[in-house]
Amino acid sequence: MSVQSNSIVLLFAAAALGAGVVERDRIFPPSTQPKAAVQQSPPVPPARPEIETTASITPPAPAVAAMPPAPPPPAAPAPPPKRMTLTEQADFDAWMIKTYLACWKPAPQPADADPYVAQVRLAFKPDGSLAKPPKLVNPPSDPAMKPQAKSVMQAVQTCNPLPVPAQYRPFYEQWRAKTIHFNPQIAAR
């Protein structure tokens, strides 16, 4: 027998043994067994097709102590909120001016004077209330305009706390300090 045919027979025999189809001694009688096969594999018992009628109850295996669940990973710090776009900022400023103008009852101005546009610096808390008293940035030098300035400061107190819409609350850092211009010509419209 050639080496190649021996190899094929060995492969076939190994596959058959692995599948439990034949026993090794049937393929290679004891006198022709290859020398490399020193150990005999134990005979494979035939499969029992009948069903056993006796059942045994075995206690369940003791449960392995479950490891406590791993703690959740630490929460990553929340990213800072994005900033308002220029359009959102313009919309917020327009809303704020409209809100303050609704609270304002301008005092009459002298007919011959230039209109006084009061500028009020405001500092807010996150809930829209004033963090500190409002500051009139440009107090009028003309005593005839003092009632106008007083009415502006009263409007700021009337609107306190400012009802900041929910869409602008995440941008508190951008509106925490504002300067509002109270123009009587705009209020008259």
Structural commentary:
The protein has 189 residues and is mainly alpha-helical. It folds into 2 domains: 1-44; 86-187, Fusion Protein Consisting Of Minor Coat Protein, Glycine Rich Linker, Tola, And A His Tag, Chain: A, Domain 2. Helices cover 32% and strands 7% of the residues. Strands 2-1-3 form a 3-stranded antiparallel sheet. It starts with a helix and ends with a helix. The mean pLDDT is 77.
Mean pLDDT: 77
Order of strands in the sheet with most strands: 2-1-3
Provide the domain count. 2
**Any idea of the CATH class of the largest domain?**
Alpha Beta
> Pairing-aware structural class of the strands and helices?
mainly alpha
The radius of gyration is 47 Å
Which residues form runs of ≥5 with pLDDT under 50? none
Q: Just name the CATH architecture of the largest domain.
A: 2-Layer Sandwich
User: Which series of helices and strands comes N to C?
Assistant: HHHEEHHEH
Globular, elongated, flat, extended or rod-shaped: what is the shape? rod-shaped
- What's the quaternary structure here? single chain
- Number-wise, the strands total 3
Task: Please render the helix and strand layout as text.
Layout: H1 3-19, H2 24-27, H3 86-103, E1 118-123, E2 135-136, H4 146-158, H5 172-175, E3 177-182, H6 184-187
Antiparallel strand pairs: 1-2, 1-3
Describe this structure in a few short sentences.
The chain contains 6 helices and 3 strands; from the N terminus they run H-H-H-E-E-H-H-E-H. It is mainly α and 189 residues long.
